[in-house]
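Lab notebook, page 48
Experiment: co-folding of the full assembly
Goal: obtain a model of how the components sit together before planning crosslinking
Operator: M.T.
Materials (sequences as entered):
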Amino acid sequence: MLKSHKIEMEYYVIPIKNHFYIKPHLLQLIDNAPAETTVDDDDAQSISRYDYNIIKQKCPYWDFLIPHIDPALTIFFKNLENVRLLSGYPGMYVSAFWFQQYKKNNFHAWHTHCNNDYACVYFIELPKGASSTVFYDANDKEIKSKAKEGELLIFPANLPHCSPINMSDERKTVVAFNIKLDEGGSIVNQQNGFQ
Ligand SMILES: [Fe+2]
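Observation: model returned without errors.
Model output:
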């Protein structure tokens, strides 16, 4: 007999300082970045521009963003001290990053970020009518995150989540990235040399 017991999960929201300075520069760099488009809309996603599958040797929008999100990641890193020490993995690093732009009626259906510890979403453009990330919690309830434009959302990577249909005439833009805990003591992505 399998018994299911529920425990609480936490997600985190951290404002990104200087968002209104960052926003136009970042959007310009994302405009210039190579991107894919969902060609055949299906049940999984309809996204007007994204670069999840593109291998990035050098990435101007990420290079620009790193120093601006670093203070927020440092706060998160400190906050997670107990989890890091208890897990035996005191460090963390960014394992992948990408952007996604949603025009009207675009969406990203339920999914998880398996093989990662935390998923992060920086809301660069979040107009009225476009939703922040929605979670599917342990009580089978849909919970809309409290993150707003200009904020970084961090949540457990195995938590099912989605980006609901963008009902706004305006675009929604996010930069998303994954975090893994590891033996090290830094948040540098050693694989790609980000600092
Ligand atoms: Fe996701």
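Interpretation: The domain at 12-182 is CATH 2.60.120.620 (Jelly Rolls).
Next step: discuss with group before ordering constructs.
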